[in-house]
Amino acid sequence: MFRRITQFCKQLFAEGEQAESTETFQQSVPEGTGLSLSVTPRNAHTISRKNISENALKVLYRLNKAGYQAFLVGGGVRDLLLGMEPKDFDVVTDATPEDIKKLFRNCRIVGRRFRLAHIVFGRDVIEVATFRGHHGDEDGDKISKANAEGRLLRDNVYGGIDEDAERRDFTVNALYYDISDYSIRSYGGGMEDLNEGVLRLIGDPDTRYREDPVRMIRAVRFATKLGMRIEDATAAPIRKLAPLLKDIPAARMYEEVLKLFFAGKAQANYQMMQDYQLFAPIFPLIAETMADSPKGHCARMTQLVMRGTDQRVIEDKPVTPSFFYAALLWYPLKSRAEEIAHESGLSLYDAYFAAMGDVLERQCQTIAIPKRFSVPARDIWQLQLRFERSQGTRAFKLMENPKFRAAYDLLLLRAEIEGGSLQKSAQWWQSFVEAPEEARGDIARGSGSSKNAAPRNRNRRVRRRPRSEGAPAGSGSGSEA
Ligand code: ATP
Ligand code: MG
User: Fold this and answer.
1) Residue whose CB lies within 8 A of the most ligand 1 atoms, among 72, 173, 269, for a mutation test
2) What pLDDT, in 10s, does the model give residues 135-161?
3) Which domains does the chain have, with CATH numbers?
4) Which of 79, 90, 255 to mutate to test the pocket of ligand 1 (most atoms within 8 A of CB)?
5) What sequence ranges are listed for the domain Poly A polymerase head (predicted)?
């Protein structure tokens, strides 16, 4: 109780004091750190506690009351200052994960590379990190560890706020909202960069990208999300260092790819990643297929998938990694299947099945697509093989498949790209799918004269799988991907 009253008085005092000053002031930096610091008092910035999540505020206040420093940091502060709604609120403190665990019953300690505390409020999780310090470089430092390329494998050295700021990626992410007096501490000119729309890496860009190559795709993601320009020195080493992305653990890359393409900026991110040569190291098969494809089907598919994903996000429709990967990898699958059929003499139909495993395995080396998405992606592919042969009364059966809708969407994309007989097949399906339920029977029977019609006579033996020509709808003719 006493502590609460003291805290309350302190806050009143701080508020009174801050009311006087609306000037941002520069402060010299403590020895050994190279970043300038400026402090913007509460009355000189636009962040209001009303816009901060209640749970984040609870965490900040409880840490502060227990005598620790506590700040909102990173994207939460940055986005609020830009008038955007933050995706999440991250907290940073001088309390260690163990200290934090003592304060919160609902706390889990997570992470190896970075040990963090997660404070769990039902479905909402507030991530609380301890200030990072400088990582020792040589002599057997066990808490910070880098590989031969300079990539940090572990980073659990604790420090103060100034060192923590140096360990952050961009200046606009080194913004700290101080819960003790509601001021904002900004390092390395973060506040000015934010106002000018400049993304600037903290420290030497070459070293910082080598430490963590994911920062290169973060640069792209923030540039498109925030409408900012990547400052020249920050942009300069990207093309040269892009191949380092190959070595990022595939599970982490999976998460990064979701953030890149499932947040409404897929087209812009894809374009910028291509410009900076960041796409090929993560999607090597797609890049190879694009390079081998004079008709540009694979490139066109990638553009359409990105556009469609953005559209769905804008319309608040669900987006799923199974469709995303099935569609992006369709032409790599097609060319691998044709290659297998050519080399092995397998029917094209069987070759497709063999190719599915190859393609997924290759893609999963850089992006660990979880089974719950790669299995349905295979279903979407398999349905492509059945579309043409199921026109007619078999169409009803196909429609019952849980992945029918996604597979049908992929068929439409393929038809848009390739035209020809595939376009005809897609039109048949479109008329069937869009027809009122009671009219579908007629449509199914109406196609009876075509070679695709299902046999009327139920007793007639149906050859389920064509022996050699069993390619998916429209793919029989060319080997173009
Ligand atoms: P958003 O949540 O909108 O994607 P963010 O900036 O909050 O953006 P997070 O991944 O939530 O990004 O990380 C929170 C903060 O942690 C960042 O603002 C940055 O200060 C720091 N950070 C995250 N990833 C890195 C990294 N790879 N290298 C250095 N600092 C990082
Ligand atoms: Mg964040």
Assistant:
1) 173
2) 654 444 445 667 777 676 666 688 899
3) 2-196 (3.30.460.10), 212-277 (no CATH), 283-449 (1.10.3090.10)
4) 90
5) 70-200
